[in-house]
Each structure stands twice: as C-alpha cells, then as structure tokens.
Amino acid sequence: MRSFDFAPLHRSTIGFDQIANLMDRALSSDGAQPSYPPYNIEKTADDAYRISVAVAGFGPDDLSVEVKQNALVIAARKGDDDTKRSYLHRGIATRAFERRFHLADHIRVTGASHVDGMLHIDLAREVPEALKPRRIDIARAASAPADVVEAQPVN
Q1: Do you find a cis peptide bond into 153, omega within 30 degrees of 0?
Q2: pTM above the 0.85 mark?
Q3: Contact between residue 89 and residue 14 where contact means Cβ atoms under 8 Å apart
C-alpha cells in the first residue's frame, strides 16, 4: 500500500482543507468495505438524489437515519423476537449494521421512507444564492461632454 504525504498541500493552500481531507479519507480507507446491506444511489433530478437501502426483515422502528457533520448514518438494530423461532434455513440476514455516506457541501436530506423492504432516503442539493453564478452588468461610458469641439479636417 502506498502512503502519500499531503503536508506540502496543507501548507501551500488556503481554504482547500475539505479537498485535502477528502483525499486523506479516500486514501486511508482500506479495501475491505462492508457490502451489507446492499444499496443504490440514483440521480432523480438535476439537484436531487435518492439512496435506496435493502433492509429486508427490519421495520421502521428498527432503523435510524441521522445526519452528523456532513455524514449520513443509517443504522439498524434488530430486537430479540427471533429467539422463539427455529429455522431450518436462514437466508435473510437481519444482523445489525451501520452504513455511512459522506455528503458533499449543500446536500440536505429531505425525507426518508420505508416501503416493501427498502429504505429510501431523498437528498437535495441547495446551493446558497451567494454561491450561485450571477451576471454583472457592464455600465456604458457617458457620451462626450457638450463643451468639446469636434475637430475639422484642415485641407
């Protein structure tokens, strides 16, 4: 595994801390990312997204969705109601999990729903007016003052 030193980047840039932190996070994460539960990320509009997580066997009371410091945290804890059951085959995993998604700046969670074993989390990008591009009108120069005499050809 390669290790990169981003110290020169930190000392020669101002205001780009988030980019450096993103690079640190991307390079420091190990290759063994959890694969449970499976999820989809889809773009539903120009500035709208949806994360769909397969949560078969979990009810809305077993799930929690929180946003902490630009991180969306989805967690599930299953109650102990399965102790009375005797399974011949158990293929639906209902083990506890915690899945984290790092949210970019100006991404806001607008809602969550639990339908047919899927947890849907809707996101929207809301860029503040101060950060949106704006057109600057260019003022025209005033016409020449009235006391200026126009030059006439001499020939």
Answers
A1: no
A2: no
A3: no
